[in-house]
Every structure is written in C-alpha cells, then in structure tokens.
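Researcher: Going back to the complex we discussed earlier. I've cleaned up the inputs and rechecked each line, so this should be the final set. Can you rerun the prediction on the complete assembly and write out the structure?
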Amino acid sequence: MVKREIVIFFLLFLLGLFLVYTYSEVTKSKERIFERIEQHEISKIAYVLQNMQQQILKHIHEYDYQDLITFFKEKEHAIAYEEMLAMMLTSDVKYSYILYRDEERKFRFLLDASKTDKASFNQKFDVNAHEYDLVYTTKKSQIIRQQNIENLYVTYLHPIIKNGEVVALFNIDFTTDIKSIILESIKPLETLFTLLTLFVVIFMAMTLMQIFHYFITKKKIFTDPLTKTFNRNYLEEISSVLNLGNYSLAMLDLDKFKIINDTYGHKAGDYVLSHASQIIKNSIRDNDIFVRYGGEEFLLFINNRDSKRDICERVRDKIAKEKFVYNGHEIYVTLSIGLHTNPYLEKNMQEAIKKADTMLYEAKKNGRNRVVVYDEKRETTASSSFSSKDLAFVKEALDEDRVTCYYQPIYNHKTGEVFKYEALVRIIAQDGTIITPYQFLPQIKSTNMHYKLTQRILALVFEKFRTNQKLVSINLSFTDLNNPDIEETIIQALRVDQDLASRITFEILESDEVDDIESFKQKIHMLHSLKAKVSIDDFGSGYSNFKRIIDTEANYLKIDGSLVKNIHKNSKDFKVVKSIVHFATQSNMQTIAEFVHSKEVYEKLLSLDIDYMQGYYIAAPTPELLKKEELFQ
Amino acid sequence: MKKLFLLLLVLTLFANDKDIIQAQILEKIIQNLSTNQKVVVWSDNREIIKEFNKKGNIATTQDCHLASIIILEDKKSLEKELCKKAVFVLDYALLSEIPHSFGSMFYKKGRPNIVIINSRIKEQNIKISKELEPYLEEKIW
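Model: Rerun complete. Updated structure for the full complex:
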C-alpha cells in the first residue's frame, strides 16, 4: 500500500516541480516581454529626440541665443517645439517635456508638450530620482523604472548636449497601459498555475499524512503492546523476505507460566512476560530479531555469529537468575529454548520454526530450563512428515481462542442412560468450519504445540464439568502425561476438587511410546491417587500388552474401533472382541465399544455383554451434552 | 488564511494610497512650519484631517475660524473673512488665485511637488525649517 502512496507522492512532487518551473518561466518571459517592448519603444523615441536635439541646437546657433532658457522664453519657439514634442504623445507616452537644472540644482520646466497636467515655463519640478543628476554627470540617457508613480512605468531621460555640456534633458514618461494589458492577459494563466500548485501541495500534504499514518499504524500492527517486541504479524510480513541464511532460530518458552498466572494473577503474569522480554532484549544485539510468538512463547532470530548456543544459554541463565518481584511476591521463572542453528536448510520459515519448536518440546520433556539444539543428522528421517502449515494453524487457533471440545455420549445400554461423555477436540477454522483432530493432531505430534493444545483441552473440560455432575473422558497420550506442565495442570485442578476428579476418566493410548513402564505405572498411579479413573484407549489393535494393562489397574478398556466396526459380519473380529470382554471382566475392568455405527453392530455387541457403547449410531459428537432422549436420532 | 486573503483583497481594491501619502507629506510640511500662533489645521479635504487625527501629531479643528493654517483644495471653500489666515493650497494654480496662500503641495506628472513662496511666508511671519528650504520659490511661474 505504502509503495503506491510513495509513487503518488513522487509523481506529485515531480508535477509540483514542473509547475514551479513553468510558473518561473512564465514570469521570466513576462519580464522579457516588458524589456523587449521597452527597448523597442525607447529606441524609437531616442532616435526622434536625437533629431530634435540637433534641430534645437541648430536653431539656437542660427538665432544666436545664449542658452535654452532665453530660446524657449520666446513664445514662437516654445510653441513650435511644443508641437514637435507633442507628436510623441501616444497611448504609450503620457508626458513629454524638457527640463533643465538651475544654479540651485533645482529642475525646472523649459517646455511641456503634455496634453494634461501641463506645467508653466520655468516651474520648479521636484524630482527624487538620482538618474536626473546622472544625466548631467554621465551625459548619457537614463531609464527610470517607476514603482510608485501612478500610471507610469518607465521614464526615459535624454540629454541635450551643447558644447560638450548637458544643458537640459528630454523627459518622456511612458504609461503603464501596455504592462497592464500584458499582465491582464497573463493573469488567468498565472491564476491557473497558482491554483494547480496549490492543489498539488494539498495533495502532497495529504499523501504525506497518509504515509505517516501508514507507518504509525504499521508500527502498532507489528508491535506486541505488552512486551513491546515484534508480534506474529511482523513475522508474517518478513517471512518472505528474511534470509534465513543469516540467522539461527531459537524458540523460547517460559516454563510453568500458567502456574504464575494461576497463583499470582494475570497482571503478575503480564509483568513477568514484559520484564522477561526486556531481559532477553537486553541480552541480544540490534540486528537480532525478537518476536513474541504468542502467549509465553518467543522466537529469536540470532544474526549469524559464533556460539549461538552460548547466546541462548546466557539468555536462559539470566532469566533463571532473575528475581521477578510483583506486589511483594518473589517469582522465579525458567526458560526452555529450542535452537535450530541452520534454519536455511528448511523449506521455509514455518518449517524452521517447527524444528525449533520440536527442540523446545525436547527441552521441556527433559526437565525444562535448558537449551536443546537441533541435530540435522539425527532428525532427517523423523522430520519428513512435518507440516509447518498445521503448526501455525493450531498456534493461531490457540491464540484466537478457536479451540473447542465436542462431546460424544458413551451409552449404558443396560440402563438406557448416558453413562458419560468423551471430550473430542475441534478447531473452529477462521471461516467457521469445524476441523476434526485427524486433520491437525498427527502433524503437531512431538512439538511443544501438542502440549499447549492438551493443556487448553484440559482447561476447557475441567471448566465445563466442574459443576454439572456429569462424567467425562479425556484423551491423553503417554507423552502428554509425561509432560511436567500437563501433570501439574491436572494435579492442580483435581487435587482441590475431588468431586470433579471422581467424574473424570483419562483415556490413555497404550502405544510404543511407553518406553518406560515404571514411569507409565507411576503416572497412572498418580491419576488414581487423585480419584480420577483411567481407561485404556484403542485396545486390541496395534500395540497391546496384556501384562502391562493388568499392572496399570485401569478402570476401563476401550475396544478399538477397527475390531468393532465389522463385528456383525466378521466372525474373527467377533471372537477377538469376545476375548477382550472376557479378559476385562476377569481383570475387573469395564468395557467400552467404540465405532458403533449401525444397528447391526449395536445388536451384535448386545450379545457380548459389553458394558458401554459409543458411536454415530448412538450419537455423533456435539458441542452440547446430549440427553438420553436425544440418542438414536 | 482565507480571512487574511479577503482582507488583503479588500485593502488592495479600496485603499487610497495617494491620499495617505499626501497627508503624510502635508504633516511633514506643517511640522516644519512655525507661526506666531499655535498651529491648528483646518482643511476642506476630510481625508487629510482624518489622517492627521489618526496620527495625532497635528492639532486640527472642524471650525475653520479656530484654525491657524488652512489647507485648501477648493477655492470655493474659502470664506472671505478667512483670507487673512495662512493658506496652504493643494493646487499650484491656486497659489496665483489666492494671493494670501503661502505654499502648495500638489502632484505634477504623478510626482508629489512642494512649492513655498518666500515673499508670502515673510509677509505672514511664517518660519520654515531647513528641510523646507529647497522648496522655496521667489515667484509663481
């Protein structure tokens, strides 16, 4: 937008220059026209006066007069020369007369051929221009450009020289008529130029104001108001032009920030964010780019220099050592950093951010308050399925509060009641469409964004079910459970609300991610200790370890949909499900069959003594909690 | 800005510079004159009196009988009994027509001219400063 404004301003500036130049040329031309006319008129007059002077001198000599005074005192001479001089009076010449300078250096009329305002012979004439005296000293003609005399614009003085001395002078006064005519004819043109210049100046001022306004707005758009750092808009603006070859990319995240907000309030959180940002800004150089990526996450583009890791370590160390004091509370925070030293190797900036985010995930997983650097060699295969677009998509949804939960009833066919609901994450796209987790969850696996999303879901579900006395299931992966932030979120929410805890079931997917069985057991135990229930999700497909399931003492076993969906026509699936139900009963666990999509499946499952059922045949997930009357619609 | 532009336009159209210049010259002349009486001016030209009053340097009167100097533009304005007062005319020709007039300020060929008749100021005990001496004339031409 601003480029267009600058071009317009430049064009207007050029136009303005052109107008000023043209106006100046017109003015100069006007002066040149006056000069030409003046020269032309004067040269004609001078020629005539020269002849007249010769005639007068010849006459004086013939009649043997001592001087001009005695010569013109004679009436007949005066009349004769007056008539001669009067012939010069035209529309351009207003007065023509002869003056002489007396002994007191006063100028007096010898002869006045003017038709109006006629002077008497020898009448004193006050002249205030020094050119009159110059005629006597230089013996040369003089031109006076009149400024203050009404209707006159030029006076031409021509000496009458007798015996090498100036004895008198012709005085010819030109009227302003010609000048006025020329000025009048040029005036519309001058007015036009003045108006055009005025308009151009006004437009230039308006354009300048717009440009100024643009930059002010731009600054506001690109600056985060809390931390005064760049925001994500700025990142989008520079992403296409920033040469990643010149930078390393670090993703920074304040550890346990949610706890600060929950414990000391959002104002304290804001204070910590803004103060921490200042510390980070003070630790980097002007040519580094520091961006608030959202929430407590920051991006730091470190301009290429040695020891990028050291810079990150220094920043991390400073934050860790800082005592944030708010309202008398001493708050300590730490910083986890994921660093990608060669972001230019990625397809684009979003890919590089995603790699840095993965490293941040590692840093969090490994205990926070640390810097993890991306190792290209180790990660080449693992990273192939990443989609940077999805990472940004989830990030924006979180920031813009577009993450929500749908709830699918889990039906108790024995009582005909809704036993509980399973919370299923959804993202409301900017165009209002509802995006299911299959479209974004796999892509953010193993990134810090996954944790953020899980935390948001937990907050949403806890809030919704805190007071409604209904039961709910929430899906958690083992890595989610292993994340200290998520663990703390769960503990904080459920420890103080045992009623809520008793109504919550965590559906945990048993997968090959569970590499540390002891840790897995501990986490399940922790959930049990909070009075929450545990369900093993997707049991019967992929990775299923019966021994481990028994050890975890789960409350529910959710049979994988792939075994359920064809149960009415596949006898093998039927047998497997039957075995699982038997195993669950023996292990003191209740069973839930998912993917109940048809009446046939539903009826087949009835024969298996399954405890609960869930699927589109019973009810699809909805934003609101469905009642039993609304099932089987 | 707009108001200023309008004001300038009005001034340019209606200002009578010639009258103002004439009043300024006359003020200079009167200030360089001295008579036996206190100088109080009356004139048949209202503009001149208005200008004098605006400046406040010269005492003026609306009653010509109370004036010590009369500035006269039109001979008809001069009452007979006032003929003996010092008269300064605004037309060179009036110098000849009013024998008691001692000087004149007038425009000749667009230029302001001053003439003071030496014999008449002597008769009327009017003294002039050096500044006015270049304008002294012995006779009317």
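Model: Worth noting: The radius of gyration of chain A is 51 Å.
Researcher: Good, that matches what I expected from the previous run.
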